[in-house]
Amino acid sequence: MRTLAGLALLLLAAACARHSPPDAAARFDPLAERYVKLALALGEHDSDYVDAYFGPAEWRAAAHDHPQSLAAIAQAAAELAAEVRAIDTTGADYLLQLRQDYIASHLESLATVARLRDGARLSFDEESRQVYGFVAPSFPPEHYAAALAEIDAILPGDKPLHERVNDFRLQSRVPVENLEAVIRAGIEECRARTLQHMSLPAGESFRLEMVSGNPWGAYNWYLGDGQGLIQMETSRPAFVGSATRIGCHEGYPGHHALSSLLDQNFLQQRGWIEFSVLPLFSPQGVIFEGSGDFAERVAFPGDSKNAFLRDSILPLAGIDAVDFATDDRLNAATKKMRYAGIEAARHYLDGDWDRAQTEDWITHYALVAPERTDAWFGFAERYRAYMINYVLGEDLVEAYIRRANPDADEEGDWQALATLLSLPPTPLLIATDQAAGHVSAAQ
How far apart are CA 391 and CA 385, in angstroms? Predict the structure, then answer.
C-alpha cells in the first residue's frame, strides 16, 4: 500500500496534468531560477539567510563573485514576486497554486529581509507578517495569571516560581557525558516510529554532532540527497525529555524528514529548482518549526513517550527516576504561557522595554532562569521575529491537523501530518480552510 503522503502527491499530480493551463507550469521554471539566484545573492550579505543550498555550484559562485547591493536585491525580488503573482492559475490544480504562492511569498519575504539588512526598520509584528506571513497574538499579564497560579500549586514553596520550576527541571538534566547517547537513541526511536506511518527517501540518513558556543539548543543542517547533520548544543542544559523533543523536531518526522521529502518530491522528481535552497528567514519557517514542535505529539501519543523515556532513556542518562506525572502537569500548565516569550521579544525589539524590564518579564511570565537570560537575549537579537514560528507555527499546524482529523485519532494524525509534509510549505497551505478540503480529498 502507498503511504498517504505518496498517494496525495499522485492525486495532486494527476489533477495538475488535467486541469492546469497548458503553459502555466512551464512559466514558473525560469522565475524560480531567478528566485534562487536572488536568495543566494542575499546570502552573501547575511550568513544566516541561506540555511541550505544544493543547486548548481556555479550559481553560488556567481553570487559570490558578482555581488549585488541589498537595494538591488530588494527591488528585483519585489518585481519578480509581482510577476509570479500575475500568472493566471485560474482553474489550475491546487498543487500549482501552492507552487505559485510558495515562490511569490518567498520573494516578498526576501525583499523585506533585504530591506531590513539595508537598514530599514519594522515593528516586530510587521516584520513577522512580511517575512513569515503571520502575526502572533498579544496577551497582557493577566492572561497568564491562571497558569502561574496552577504552576504555583504544582510546585509549592517559598522560592520565586521560576526558581522552583528550574530546580524541578534540573532533576532530570542529562549529564554532558551521556548526552550524545541520549539524543541519538531519541532520534532513532523517532525515526522508527515515523517509518511505521510514512515512507522516506531511500538512503536518507543523518549524522549527530555535539557542539558548543551557539545561540540555539539544537540545529538540523540539511545537506541534500537525503543527508542531514543534527547538532546538539552542550553548553545549555538538556533534559531527559530532550531525547524525544529533539529527536522528533530536528529529525523525524520533523526537519530532516521534511527537508528530505521536499528534496525528493519537488527538486529531484519534478525539477522545481526553488527547492534547491532553504532560506531560514522565510514563510516556510512557520511550517518547518510548527510541524517540528507538533511532531512529538503525533509520534508519541498517550503515555508512550513517558514509557520510552523511563525504559530506554533513563538508563542511558544515568538517572534513576523522574517524576513524570508532575512533569506532565507542569508541561501542560507552562504550555498556556508559551506566548510570553514572544510578548517579551515584541516589546524589547520594538524598544518599548529596556533589558531590565524584559528580564523581569521573562523570568516572571516565561519562567526563564536568570542564568539563561543571556541566551534568551542572544537568540532574540539574532533571530528576532523568527521565534513566532515555534509557538504560532505549532498552533497553525495543529489547526490544520484538526481540520483534517477532527476525531484526533492516532492514525488520522499521522495521515494528516504526512500530507502536510508532502506539499510545498507555504502560507496558503495552512492559512485557509481550503487546505483542509484538499487534505480530506487526498485521504
Answer: 12
d(Cα 31, Cα 272) in Å, to the nearest integer? 11
d(CA 296, CA 230): 17
β-bridge mates for residue 50, sequence order: 279
Q: Residues near 154 by Cβ (< 8 Å), separated by ≥ 6?
A: 326, 329, 330, 333
User: The C-alpha cell of 155 is what?
Assistant: 510546585
Closest CA to 106 of 46, 53, 31: 31
* 113 touches 281 (CB < 8 A): yes
pLDDT tens series, the chain, 443 aa: 334 444 444 444 444 443 445 567 789 999 999 999 999 999 999 999 999 999 999 999 999 999 999 999 999 999 999 999 999 988 888 899 999 999 999 999 999 999 999 999 999 999 999 999 999 999 999 999 999 999 999 999 999 999 999 999 999 999 999 999 999 999 999 999 999 999 999 999 999 999 999 999 999 999 999 999 999 999 999 999 999 999 999 999 999 999 999 999 999 999 999 999 999 999 999 999 999 999 999 999 999 999 999 999 999 999 999 999 999 999 999 999 999 999 999 999 999 999 999 999 999 999 999 989 999 999 999 999 999 999 999 999 999 999 999 998 999 999 999 999 999 999 989 886 433 333 332 22
What b-and-e string marks burial along 58-77, b requiring 16 or more CB atoms within 10 Å of the CB?
ebbeebeeeebebeebbebb
- 218-224 sheet: strands from edge to edge: 205-211, 227-233, 218-224
Q: Which three cell numbers stand for residue 64?
A: 559570490
What is the distance between the alpha carbons of residues 216 and 113, in angstroms, rounded to a whole number? 21
C-alpha distance from residue 145 to each of 42, 149, 152, 153, 353 (Å): 43, 6, 11, 12, 21
At 281, list the grid cell.
528567514
